[in-house]
Design a protein that fits this description.
The protein is of the alpha/beta class. It has helices at residues 2-10, 26-39, 69-79, 89-92, 130-133, 137-152, 164-176, 206-211, 214-226, 233-245; strands spanning 15-20, 44-49, 83-85, 156-160, 182-186, 231-232, 250-258, 268-269, 274-281, 284-291. The protein contains ten helices and ten strands. The strands form three sheets. Strands 3-2-1-4-5 form a five-stranded parallel β-sheet, with helices on both faces. A three-stranded antiparallel β-sheet has the order 7-9-10. The longest helix is centred in the middle third of the chain and has 16 residues, at 137-152. The termini are far apart. The structure holds adenosine monophosphate (AMP).
Length: 292
């Protein structure tokens, strides 16, 4: 992948990149189209499909995360991707080669008992919400995204607003570590009833799927509440928590009202405030967010 990317660089081709975990849906494909718009007809659009183990907690759904590579490849081709990069775990997290000092790559000798041991940790934006609920999640995300950036060497990378905190953290990492990559955040694509498309929607049974729309309805209710006037965040939060409890299959994990850039909680909810929530429907955990 890196060799190919270097060739593109030498030929002055722009490279657009969409990292995913596969089981693609129209939300992912909208990111591919956004990447294409950014790099033009002569540019290269790369989609990566990699279910990254380091961003899953020990009790999470890594082993049963849905996969369908043949279908994904067809969808990527139809959406206009040039390359689909599908590395294996052994390629992404190999044992060390060469001496422990690391300057002996030519020898390509595996260091005995070595394991992958270098991670990237964003310390500020990763603390709340998904970071609090999933303690090692963002360490896995920033590490794999940094690795993928080094492999794909993109000019532009596109992330979904659906994962608002993730996009903010990737932007911060890119800035803090001087990656020469422009980060684009593309809008959330939703089903007809408003449920944000997600590979994890596949886990829902019919009754859970019907009630999953509570996440979107919560966003709409919050927007309506602040349309004319600002209100104390605590009051709005209490109202929304009660509203979510009205869906018997839904169990709230967290709901936060925060500044969309700094991700710090607000005391007053108003237009422009960001709302994010995580809700369980049975064992399936769904997230959504939006600006009020
Ligand atoms: P995932 O495969 O879940 O890791 O997602 C890969 C990328 O697609 C991330 O940047 C997500 O934010 C984005 N994404 C996921 N769902 C949607 C959606 N419904 N609309 C737009 N982008 C999405």
């Amino acid at each position: 992948m890196q060799r190919l990317a270097r060739q593109w660089q030498r030929r002055h081709r722009r490279v657009g990149f969409v990292p995913t975990m596969g089981y693609l849906h129209a939300g992912h494909l909208s990111l591919v189209q956004a990447a294409r718009r950014r790099v033009g007809k002569t540019g290269q659009v790369v989609v990566s499909i990699y279910v990254n183990p380091t961003q899953f907690g020990p009790q999470e759904d890594l082993s049963r995360y849905p996969r369908d590579l043949a279908r994904d490849l067809k969808l990527c081709r139809a959406a206009g991707a040039n390359v689909v990069f599908t590395p294996s775990d052994a390629e992404m997290y190999p044992p060390a080669v060469g001496s422990a000092c690391g300057d002996d790559r030519t020898a390509e000798r595996t260091v005995p008992n070595s394991r992958f041991s270098t991670y990237i940790v964003e310390e500020q934006l990763s603390q709340a919400m998904e970071g609090a609920a999933r303690p090692t999640h963002f360490r896995g995300v920033t590490t794999v995204v940094a690795k993928l950036f080094h492999l794909v060497l993109p000019d532009v990378a596109v992330f979904g607003a659906k994962d608002w905190q993730q996009a903010a953290i990737v932007k911060r990492m890119t800035w803090d570590l001087n990656f020469p990559v422009k980060i684009i955040v593309a809008p959330t694509v939703r089903a007809a009833d408003g449920l944000a498309l997600s590979s994890r929607n596949k886990y829902l049974n019919a009754a859970q799927r019907t009630q999953a729309v509570i996440l979107h309805h919560t966003l709409q209710r919050a927007r309506a509440a602040v349309r004319r006037k600002s209100i104390p965040a605590a009051r709005l939060k209490a109202d929304l928590e009660k509203f979510i409890a009205s869906a018997p299959l839904a169990r709230l994990d967290y709901l936060e009202l925060f500044d969309p850039d700094t991700l710090t909680p607000v005391l007053t909810a108003k237009r422009g405030t960001q709302l994010a929530l995580a809700v369980y429907l049975g064992p399936t955990r769904l997230i959504d967010n939006g600006q009020l």
